[in-house]
Amino acid sequence: MNPKPDFDIVKNHLQKSISRQAPLKELLEQIIKWIEAQSSEFLVSILVGDKSTGKWQIGAAPSLSPDLLELIKLVVFKQLPGINSNSSFEPISKRIIWKDSTYSLQNGWWATPIHSRLNGKLLGALVFFFKEFRSPKKDEISLIINGVDWAATVIEQKMSVDAVLTPEVRQRTYTEELEQKVKERTRELTAMVKKLVETNLSLEYQIHETRQADAQAKKNYALYVAIARYFPKVMIVVINRDYQIVFLDGEELRKIELSKENVEGHSVKQVKNFSTEWKKQMLTYAQKTFHGGHYSYEIKYKANSYKVNTMPLDEGHLDVNLVMFVFTNISEQKSTEQKMLKALKKEKELSELKSRFVSMASHEFRTPLSTILSSANLIARLNEPGKEDKRLKNVERIKSSVKNLIDILNEFLSLGRLEEGALQMKKEIFDLMEFMETIVQELQHVQKPGQEVQLTSDQETIQVNLDKQFTRNVFLNLLSNALKYSPPNEPVDLIINTNDTSLTVKIIDQGIGIPEDEQQNLFNLFFRARNVTNIEGTGLGLPIVKKYIELMNGEITFDSKLEQGSTFTITLPLDQEENA
Question: Would you give the end-to-end CA distance of the chain in angstroms?
């Protein structure tokens, strides 16, 4: 059995169907399907009245057989009062007999009236057909109440073109119609004043016109109420020239935590739920709108965003004494807009990364491959005796180029594993000073003439509990960079200091430095500063170093000046307890 649909979900679905101008039959069938899903003991139909003919019609009955539909026309219609009747009817319960493949021969039906929520007039009837002749049970009463309430809402809203327009069109249509009404009333009142002056109308006639204006004002008030209650995600506020709120209504009252009773009659400044910014904006735009303008602005309340439209109301007077504010919740639109902007930003970043990768790969792979090709050609020509040294030299060039290619590929693999979270830290206790001396010796073959890595520390031995491979990759990369970007005969300082909880390693070179305007991009993938484009490199080393350090709960910072050198500072925890 399918789960029973939640009533709030059905309500939201109904509201969306109304907004997209769904046919009345479709809306009524949604209500019936929700009621019938609550129990298998009855079937439901909704009858509506045709005002033009005064006769009943079957609005919707999706589950009834042809026999039952005919029964409604022959029996049920005759039991109900005329649709144009001002009187209603009490709930009707009847025993009836009909043939049906699902239900027994002797069954019953129960009907309850559907009244207008605005004027109380009869709109239709909700009819239940039971398997057994009985009155509704206690838990079925709430189904009937909800069904009647929603059927009345749907029938009434389908009677009005305004109530089925989309939110954007509703607001625009309402504004245009309201402006037209204001213009029409202004023209009427102007003509009336001119006529009074010209013809010296009697006092009785003036009283009559005043009463008409009052009646129109009441109609306008009813219009405000209808708009506020039937427009989704809207709150309407009307204020007078004293900046008092004379009208407040709409679906958004609950979200803004307001109530008509506590707000109407108070000035804008007295409303506690309005922030200082809300009050300032409302007072500013009210003052502008009193001069006859129309304005629009946006404002937030907690997690919700609202678009506010203002318009002047003359209410039958020549001067504008009232201003209407229409607050429309646009949080969903704002959220969608932000998601789109983030997606565009991400797409742009991916495109830039792709371009950098293609540029780097084409450069870094071309050089070693060219070296391998040229060396292989030379070896092929050096077959004569006595040229063994030259052959070996070219073999070494091939080996070196292959090693460069392997190093580049290893960087790609390391980055991929880091991004996927596939690398796990394996701590072990070791002497950092002895470890660093090994790395310094390992780098001797890449040093330029006169270069030297000078290792100094405040301790002869430093016991650390870190991932040995991570640590090796970090300092091998940073020291290689310091040597690569420094000129010959310039030393690189490797300084290690400790305190009670951490160790600090500084790598100081006297190299070419990093341009100040590019330093914020140093740890971005594939980034290479403009002053190193002629020096081999992939732009992956420092991003990988940074991820290794972060995995070991450390941090890396740097300071650099162009043509004066760079200092990289790495801070790592001095944890000497082995993991369990």
Answer: 52
**Angle formed by the axes of helices 541-551 and 468-484, nearest 10°:** 150
Residue 214: alpha-carbon gap to chain centroid: 46
Cα separation, 168 vs 158, whole angstroms: 18
Q: Are 127 and 44 in contact (CB under 8 A)?
A: yes
Q: Show the tokens assigned to 355.
A: 């371009």
User: What tokens were used for 568?
Assistant: 């990289």
* Token reading at 435: 């470890």
Tens of pLDDT, residue by residue, the chain (580 residues): 455 666 677 778 877 877 777 888 888 888 888 888 888 888 888 988 877 777 888 889 898 888 888 878 877 777 777 766 555 556 655 544 433 333 333 457 778 888 887 777 888 888 888 777 677 777 778 888 888 888 888 888 776 644 445 455 555 555 665 666 667 767 776 776 667 656 555 555 455 555 555 555 555 555 556 565 656 778 888 889 899 988 888 777 778 888 878 888 888 888 888 888 888 998 999 989 888 788 999 988 888 889 999 988 865 455 788 888 988 888 888 888 888 888 777 767 655 655 555 555 555 555 566 666 666 666 666 566 666 666 666 666 666 556 655 655 555 555 555 555 656 778 899 999 999 998 898 888 888 899 999 999 988 899 999 988 889 888 988 998 899 889 999 999 999 999 988 999 999 999 889 898 988 888 887 777 887 877 776 677 788 888 889 888 999 999 999 989 999 999 999 874 544 3
Report residue 233 as tokens: 């995600």
| Residue-level length of the chain | 580
CA distance 174 to 311: 11
DSSP annotation of 464 reads E
Q: Which residues pair with 572 in a beta bridge?
A: 503
In the DSSP assignment, the letter for residue 3 is P
Closest CA to 251 of 227, 233, 239, 276: 233
Beta-strand runs (E) in 281-423: 295-301, 304-313, 322-329
Interatomic CA distance for residues 181 and 178, integer angstroms: 5
Distance between CA atoms of residues 382 and 154, nearest Å? 95
Rg (C-alpha) for the chain, rounded Å, is 41
Residue 325 in tokens: 């504010």
> With left for phi above 0 and alpha for psi between -120 and 50, is residue 407 left, alpha or beta?
alpha
- Structure tokens belonging to residue 195: 């006529």
Q: Which residues contact 561 (CB under 8 A, 6 or more apart)?
A: 513, 516
Three-class SS of residue 565?
strand
SS3 category, 26:
helix
| Residues 6 or more apart whose Cβ sits within 8 Å of residue 495 | 456, 457, 505, 506, 508
3-state secondary structure of 50: strand
DSSP-assigned letter for residue 75: I
167-199 vs 203-230: helix axis angle to the nearest 10?
180
User: Which uninterrupted H or E stretch holds 258?
Assistant: none
Torsion of CA 315, 316, 319, 320, to 10 degrees: 20
